[in-house]
């Protein structure tokens, strides 16, 4: 009897193409969420590929992803149309993120170790340093690292994955580029860390929910400024 053959590794080019597709989708998603790409706008494959410096293929795959998310619709012979983004959409997205994040926060407050809290403190100081340097890209990376460590401390990896999936809709760069937001984020993290050391579950949950309330308010204010809703 022949031994089962091992699955062949996927070609590097295919992996890179998937990464490009994800990057293009993230860029287009952020542009839609922040009103840069307005409802009723057609996204052209060739123009988008040229603007982003990629081939048409990852743009086509990214648009397929966004169609599945209800952010664009394919109009035959015309291209991909940006669909309306409503206040209810924003409220729903942030409600879902906050609901999952607060559940994770409660678990973290009950299960986190002193070593994990020390790691959160270190990561928050890295965020504070990035905020002082006014480096939006570094701020975004440091903020992600802090929340990844926080969510891992819960032991609820599947739920943390769901939060990561929903968080794709949060346009992180608009926050990272705002000095006021960076200072507030560092301060909120310090309060959270202090509450974790005390084992104060209610405060950890409240502070976590507050971050998403603040995020929603900032995004809605930006979209109001762009007159997305008339």
UniProtKB/TrEMBL annotation:
- Record organism: Mycolicibacterium moriokaense
Q: Which GO terms describe its molecular function?
A: DNA binding; DNA-binding transcription factor activity
- Which InterPro entries does UniProt cross-reference here? GntR_C (IPR011711), TF_FadR/GntR_C (IPR008920), Tscrpt_reg_HTH_GntR (IPR000524), WH-like_DNA-bd_sf (IPR036388), WH_DNA-bd_sf (IPR036390)
Pfam families, sorted: FCD, GntR
- Looking at the keywords, is DNA-binding present? yes
| Keywords for this protein | Coiled coil, DNA-binding, Transcription, Transcription regulation
Query: Which spans of this chain does the record mark as coiled coil?
Result: 106-133
Q: What is this protein called?
A: GntR family transcriptional regulator
Source organism's superkingdom?
A: Bacteria
Pinpoint the HTH gntR-type domain residues.
18-85
């Amino acid at each position: 009897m022949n031994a089962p053959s091992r699955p062949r590794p996927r070609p590097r080019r295919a992996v890179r193409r998937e990464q490009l597709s994800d990057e293009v989708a993230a860029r287009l998603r952020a542009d839609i969420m922040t009103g840069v790409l307005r409802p009723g706008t057609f996204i052209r494959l060739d123009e988008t590929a040229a603007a982003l410096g990629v081939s048409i293929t990852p743009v086509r795959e990214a648009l397929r992803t966004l169609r599945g998310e209800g952010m664009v619709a394919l109009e035959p012979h015309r291209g991909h149309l940006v669909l309306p983004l409503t206040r209810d959409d924003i409220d729903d997205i942030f409600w879902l993120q906050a609901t999952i994040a607060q559940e994770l926060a409660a678990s973290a407050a009950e299960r986190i170790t002193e070593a994990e809290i020390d790691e959160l403190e270190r990561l928050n100081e890295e965020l504070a340093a990035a905020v002082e340097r006014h480096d939006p890209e570094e701020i975004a990376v440091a903020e992600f690292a802090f929340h990844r460590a926080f969510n891992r401390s819960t032991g609820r990896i599947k739920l943390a994955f769901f939060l990561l999936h929903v968080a794709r809709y949060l346009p992180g760069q608009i926050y990272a580029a705002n000095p006021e937001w960076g200072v507030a984020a560092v301060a909120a993290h310090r309060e959270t860390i202090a509450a974790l050391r005390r084992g104060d579950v209610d405060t950890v949950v409240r502070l976590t929910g507050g971050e998403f309330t603040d995020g929603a308010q900032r995004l809605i204010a930006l979209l109001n400024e762009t007159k997305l809703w008339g």
